[in-house]
Amino acid sequence: MMSSITRFNESLMSHQTFVLIGIPGMQEKNSWVAFPLFVLYTLTLLGNFTILYVIKSDTSLHEPMYFFLSMLARSDLGLSMSTMPTMLSVYWFDFREIPFNACISQMFFIHTFQWIESGILVAMAFDRLIAIRHPLRYRSLLPNSVVVKIGIVVLSRGLCVIFPIPFLIKRLPFCRSNVLSHSYCLHQDAMKLACADTRVNLLYGLTVVISSLGLDVVSILVSYALILRTVLTIASHQECLKALNTCVAHIAAILIFYVPMIGTSMAHRFGRHLSPIVHMLMANIFVAVPHFSILLCTA
């Protein structure tokens, strides 16, 4: 009896690493995904660094819209560098093991940059609202000091919301499979492998999604409702279209960012019956496709 208890207690602490996966059941085809991911990663780095350099060098771009764009570029770089090296090591070199603490660190940075980017998209919607409703007072309503304060609030919110996640995961014993569903670490993915009560993690994750994601989406919808109301009062049809055209790229970036994120979250919570390949594709889209949002915003 004592020996069985001892073996059980040892198994609770046995997982010092997690195993990441590529294409489920088709590991020999992982290299097919590696090269497109490498190209995407390279273009993301070059594109975002170029945007940051151009905005910094050209004083005519020292406007709130471009400051928010530079914040989006930085968060996009952070998200890319948090995920792509691990994904490339899995798909290209078949290096699939990741230490437990490294996995926790990666999920912290992924989720932090995810919420920072969401907050920046809200700030950009607010920026478009001010620019269209009060074009003559745009600079006075959004001076550089206000832009900096908004950036600090967005950064602080992202860090504070995700700060408890590593501690919530670290307290859990992992005595089941240590194979994750993706080629990088996510809180909801690692949580499913725990052999203990995860209701605290579930409740906290649900609270974050409702309070942060829900608030961000509602804020964006309200901003665009006010923008649409303002645009419809413009007498000139040409000026109306011109005003709406300034929002097209931002709307596309919002859809590209939120749809994969919500889809991946829903798949984890309600799609356990789905094929592992579906989960893999959605997870890769979640971290790869939103990188194009920054390029859309510069269009």
**Sheet with the most strands?**
2 strands, antiparallel
CATH architecture: Up-down Bundle
Q: How much of the residues is beta strand, in percent? A: under 5%
Average pLDDT value?
81
CATH topology: Rhopdopsin 7-helix transmembrane proteins
**What is the domain tally?**
1
Biggest sheet strand line-up: 1-2
Describe this structure in words.
By secondary structure, the protein is mainly alpha-helical. It has one domain (28-297): Rhopdopsin 7-helix transmembrane proteins (Up-down Bundle). The protein contains twelve helices and two strands; from the N terminus they run αβααβααααααααα. It has helices at residues 2-12, 30-57, 64-93, 100-133, 138-141, 144-162, 165-170, 187-191, 199-232, 237-270, 276-288, 292-297; strands at 17-19, 97-99. A two-stranded antiparallel sheet has the order 1-2. The longest helix has 34 residues, at 100-133. The radius of gyration is 22 Å and the shape is globular. Mean pLDDT is 81; it is low at 1-14.
